[in-house]
Amino acid sequence: MLKRALILLKVLIHLLCLAPLAWLWHFYTSGALALNADPVNFITHFTGDWTLYILFASLAITPIRRFATRLGFLVRFRRLIGLYSFFYATLHLATYIFLFSGYDLTTALDGIRAGHPSVLVTQWKLIWPGMVEDVLKRRFIQVGLFAWLLLLALACTSPAFIMRAMGGKNWQRLHRLVYVAAVAGIIHFWWQVKAGNTPWRVTVVLTILLLARVAYTAMKRLKKTTPIPARPTSV
Known about the structure:
mainly alpha, metal ion binding, about 80% helix
């Protein structure tokens, strides 16, 4: 594929991945978010949903390039898309910390402007006990935090120089944990939703992606075990 086309495709991926955040910002600045019954809950679900959508997009690249070899160039963008998934996961976590848990962001910012940065720590100390109690009490937060930590590890090891330092095989083993993170994300979703609003669509998508990986692995092993018939020798 031409270098110029790859650059344009990379720019397009950046724009597509940033589009949800731009829409959310417009939703906020237009005042529409304030009209929502529960703005914090809306932001929480919005960032969580897009974490999964973008994560699934990155996971889909592997089966696509395996079953449609002409699209193998997409693998160049897998890490980029995965990093955007971590970005939205971090926004999702930040929503919980700074909006849901009672962190007074306005007071913290006012303190910084007044030359008292210690107010950041003060506000953190105020919410920390409640957050710990909340995490210990709610399973969906525990599994969600576990998924975020996995994505953090993958994001930190995504640069090429770290991959070279780790070695290709070790790096691949570590980055297969992205499937564990995806499953944990789905469990996080299931455990927090109320009856009648189950995330079955994203569950089906992840199931298809996992089955595609299993199918490819099975086909690969079958080819290895199938003996190649010997050519008849001419007399």
